[in-house]
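[Meeting: bench + compute handoff]

Bench side (C.D.) handed over the final construct sequence. Compute side (W.E.) agreed to return the predicted structure before the next meeting so the bench team could plan truncations. Sequence as handed over:
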Amino acid sequence: MPHKFTFAALGILLSVASYAQKADNELVYLKQSPPGLTPEVFAPGVISLEDEFEFGSVFSEDGTEFYYGVDVNGKSETRYTKLEEGKWTEPEKLFYHKQYGYNDPFLSPDEQKLYFISSQPLNGTGAKKDIDIWYAEKQANSWSDPINAGEIINSDSNEYYISFTESGTLYFASNIRATQRGDYDIYTSQQVDGQFQTPQRLSDAVNTANYEADVFVAYDESYLIFCSHRPGSYGRGDLYISFKQEDGSWAEAKNMGNIINTEHYEFCPFVTKDGKYFFYSSDRDIYWVSAQIIEQLRNSE
């Protein structure tokens, strides 16, 4: 009897644990029904609102914190919502200012820093400057004041949109070294002992004489997705993808096709750490779709 009771009790505990895990899974990602291979507006009426322009989003690894950019009368701000005691909080402003914007949030690999871009002046007051990469450090129940990412990354031109590999390598866009090419290019910077190294421009398989920016890199660095303005695109800006080859080089980037790209402007790509969902921005809203679409593109190469 004692053994039977023990096994029965264990079965009940496992059943309860399984139910709790299922309940938790139903709560993450703002309790939204998962999309298939057709893109859908993300959290309509909660995040994607009819009278606002939402873009540039990122989830925490466990899917319980969501950060995103909103354009309000031409001024961008960063908002967030989180799962708290079984409910998602009302989205609220995290970083905002009446003179300059904050947007394109992205969490560091350990999620102890929230990176974003801003034209905030270095001394915190006065006229806004060019766009720099900034970050805030996680505190007990809040984030620190913005900290500039430093002159190794930032220049007297624009740097924006941030993405990290699992090892901490940074990918971003800049127009500082593109003066002979006409527009923005994509760069990468490794971290050594916590310090960013001199950025390196990606190869011509990714960068062209056109605009390349808004880059997302897979956590294992196996692919990257970015926005580009190129001849033959579907709209004003399309999303392109490049897969890393066996020799470590990037394959020639290709358009992600008309399932993703439209006559509108597609930008701000992001793939969740669990590899399930691909987010991007289009037509003033945030969209999401099953990340299986990326594997379909990989298999079609």
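W.E. noted at the follow-up: The radius of gyration is 21 Å. C.D. will use this when planning the next construct.
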